[in-house]
């Protein structure tokens, strides 16, 4: 049927010449990647500063923002049937990921009610150190002394980004509210680091699970989990007017814009990760945090001094140094593994060659010895 159909509807198919799709030039691919990185940075900066505006100006509850995040996640989940199948297969692991991801975002938004964006990102800059410690405890991944020094320099550089001048006075005064915000941000950072370890374990079991699937499934599950809490805690306050009403026209438009920016940030980050290596993505992620701190200091009136710019330079250099050390360490492990595998293969090949040679030299059990009597018998049969 297929041949008849093709012969009937494409009688001149032998006259058609199919040409190869031209390869994308390197300059065009570099330009696209650069634009995607700029979009990622712009979306991250806008989402952080706009989240501060929503919490402080519009009086939107952090739990309400968490529920708003579930709207695009549910839309993505409806369009992806494979994500639903993966949730059925790995629902326990994805449930733990959902709890920690929601806890991290919720603690981050609550911390923004107590301190500025720059101070919160200063606390969140300790994530590489926390991730290194937790990875060593649970995954057995150890770092060298140079990598630990690079991580310390990253934290020092980010702290210097939010210092006033050269003194020990941070852009936010160390009031009790600021201390509470920093504590909540650190708890959220621990949740993020634990969540990263959980995702590594899930990815080891199933390579088909992507970040977009984890994003859609985790946000949807988190919305289902926290909806009763939001209904009994925030719904009465919304009716009383003590907190912002998300169903107001102006507030709803602001929340819709915030949701679009959050999805843009997530998808642009995935696009950059698809084009570049994970090490390059981590370098850009560290630089993104510095950009967010610098822009937030400028928007909220915290002027940047030479000391702040020195901190930005230290953080950027430390991130690049750490990524280079990590890449060299991974290459050394791969070379060591390949050399061991090659030695084992060569040893096995040598044993196989010796076995084949010994088998080749052995007399066949089926063939009997060709004696003179046997030759005479064959001659008699021929005659």
UniProtKB/TrEMBL annotation:
<protein>
    <recommendedName>
        <fullName>Sugar phosphate transporter domain-containing protein</fullName>
    </recommendedName>
</protein>
<feature type="transmembrane region" description="Helical">
    <location>
        <begin position="89"/>
        <end position="108"/>
    </location>
</feature>
<keyword id="KW-1133">Transmembrane helix</keyword>
<dbReference type="InterPro" id="IPR037185">
    <property type="entry name" value="EmrE-like"/>
</dbReference>
<feature type="domain" description="Sugar phosphate transporter">
    <location>
        <begin position="31"/>
        <end position="323"/>
    </location>
</feature>
<feature type="transmembrane region" description="Helical">
    <location>
        <begin position="252"/>
        <end position="276"/>
    </location>
</feature>
<feature type="transmembrane region" description="Helical">
    <location>
        <begin position="209"/>
        <end position="232"/>
    </location>
</feature>
<keyword id="KW-0812">Transmembrane</keyword>
<feature type="compositionally biased region" description="Basic and acidic residues">
    <location>
        <begin position="365"/>
        <end position="383"/>
    </location>
</feature>
<dbReference type="InterPro" id="IPR004853">
    <property type="entry name" value="Sugar_P_trans_dom"/>
</dbReference>
<dbReference type="InterPro" id="IPR050186">
    <property type="entry name" value="TPT_transporter"/>
</dbReference>
<dbReference type="GO" id="GO:0016020">
    <property type="term" value="C:membrane"/>
</dbReference>
<dbReference type="Pfam" id="PF03151">
    <property type="entry name" value="TPT"/>
</dbReference>
<feature type="transmembrane region" description="Helical">
    <location>
        <begin position="283"/>
        <end position="301"/>
    </location>
</feature>
<feature type="transmembrane region" description="Helical">
    <location>
        <begin position="147"/>
        <end position="166"/>
    </location>
</feature>
<feature type="region of interest" description="Disordered">
    <location>
        <begin position="336"/>
        <end position="383"/>
    </location>
</feature>
<keyword id="KW-0472">Membrane</keyword>
<feature type="transmembrane region" description="Helical">
    <location>
        <begin position="178"/>
        <end position="197"/>
    </location>
</feature>
């Amino acid at each position: 049927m297929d041949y008849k159909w093709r012969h009937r509807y494409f009688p001149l198919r032998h006259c058609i010449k199919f040409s190869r799709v031209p390869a994308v030039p390197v300059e065009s691919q570099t330009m696209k990647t650069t634009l995607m990185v700029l979009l990622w940075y712009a979306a991250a900066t806008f989402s952080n500063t706009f989240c501060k505006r929503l919490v402080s100006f519009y009086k939107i509850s952090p739990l309400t923002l968490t529920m708003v995040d579930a709207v695009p996640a549910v839309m993505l989940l409806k369009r992806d049937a494979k994500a639903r199948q993966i949730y059925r297969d790995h629902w326990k692991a994805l449930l733990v990921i959902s709890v920690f991801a929601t806890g991290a975002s919720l603690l981050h938004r609550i911390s923004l009610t107590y301190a500025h964006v720059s101070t919160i990102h200063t606390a969140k800059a300790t994530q590489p150190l926390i991730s290194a410690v937790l990875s060593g405890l649970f995954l057995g991944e150890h770092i060298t002394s140079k990598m630990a020094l690079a991580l310390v320099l990253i934290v020092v550089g980010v702290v210097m980004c939010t210092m006033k001048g050269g003194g020990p006075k941070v852009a936010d005064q160390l009031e009790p509210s600021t201390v509470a915000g920093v504590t909540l941000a650190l708890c959220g950072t621990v949740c993020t680091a634990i969540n990263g370890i959980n995702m590594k374990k899930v990815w080891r079991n199933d390579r088909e699970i992507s970040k977009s699937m984890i994003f859609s499934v985790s946000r949807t599950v988190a919305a289902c989990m926290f909806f009763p809490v939001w209904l009994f805690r925030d719904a009465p306050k919304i009716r009383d007017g003590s907190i912002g009403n998300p169903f107001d026209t102006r507030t709803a438009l602001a929340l819709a814009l915030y949701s679009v920016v959050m999805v843009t940030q997530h998808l642009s980050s995935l696009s950059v990760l698809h084009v570049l290596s994970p090490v390059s993505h981590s370098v850009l992620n560290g630089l993104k945090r510095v950009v967010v701190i610098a822009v937030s200091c400028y928007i909220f009136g915290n002027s940047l001094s030479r000391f702040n710019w020195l901190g930005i330079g230290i953080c950027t250099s430390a991130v690049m140094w750490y990524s280079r050390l990590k890449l060299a360490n991974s290459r050394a492990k791969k070379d060591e593994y390949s050399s061991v595998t090659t030695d084992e293969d060569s040893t096995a090949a040598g044993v196989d060659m010796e076995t084949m040679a010994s088998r080749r030299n052995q007399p066949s059990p089926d063939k009997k010895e060709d004696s003179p009597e046997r030759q005479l018998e064959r001659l008699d049969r021929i005659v």
